[in-house]
Design a protein that fits this description.
The protein has helices spanning 16-28, 46-59, 73-79, 93-101, 117-129, 136-148; strands spanning 6-11, 32-35, 64-69, 87-89, 107-111. By secondary structure, the protein is of the alpha/beta class. It has a single domain (6-151), classed as Sugar-phosphate isomerase, RpiB/LacA/LacB (Ribose 5-phosphate Isomerase B, Chain: A, 3-Layer(aba) Sandwich). The protein has a 5-stranded parallel β-sheet, sandwiched between helices. Helix 4 runs parallel beside helix 5. The protein starts with 5 loop residues before the first strand and ends in a 6-residue tail after the last helix. The structure holds D-ribose. The site of D-ribose has 8 residues, from helix 3.
């Protein structure tokens, strides 16, 4: 039996088309997408949508999330400011697999203006089907987690 997952998804205008496509795709795969917007192509600020999703992942309300903006860069920067969020900007299949196996990414970020729809679907499928390998990778994630306890200032 497949494990049905609640997966948050959010975007800005640069990721809107792809977000719509991936939301349906997640349903096709049997998952439950939680669509946090944006809901049309009007220009919005990506931090507002990245924050909404990353906050829920950080609190544990969502285990996994997908963020899409034009390049994926802005969304990655936003999401990685949240404690416990490991957001990976993934625009290829190799990174899709290893972002889970080695870095246990809990947020997948895709550049909506970089990646075509078919590749994006393969990236999502690969990401969801891959799992964290633990072992030496766990030790490395613990080092990242310990950084979150420090308050770095310039
Ligand atoms: C919006 O034009 C664009 O800046 C945004 O989607 C994203 O690419 C930011 O990283």
């Amino acid at each position: 039996m497949m494990n049905v997952m609640r997966i948050g998804i959010a975007c800005d205008h640069g990721g809107f088309d792809l977000k719509e496509e991936l939301t349906s795709f997640l349903q096709t795969l049997g998952h439950e997408p939680i669509d946090l917007g944006t809901f049309n192509e009007n220009s919005v600020d990506y931090p507002d949508y990245g924050m909404m999703l990353a906050e829920q992942v950080s609190k544990g309300d969502l285990k996994l999330g997908i963020l899409i903006c034009g390049t994926g860069i802005g969304m990655s920067i936003v999401a990685n400011k949240y404690k416990g969020v490991r957001a990976a900007l993934v625009n290829d299949l190799y990174s899709a697999r290893y972002s889970r196996e080695h870095t246990d990414a809990n947020v997948l970020v895709i550049g909506g203006r970089i990646v075509g729809k078919d590749l994006a679907k393969e990236i999502v499928k690969t990401w969801l089907e891959s799992s964290f390998l633990g072992g030496r990778h766990q030790r490395r994630l613990e080092k990242i987690a310990s950084l979150e306890e420090k308050n770095f200032r310039a």
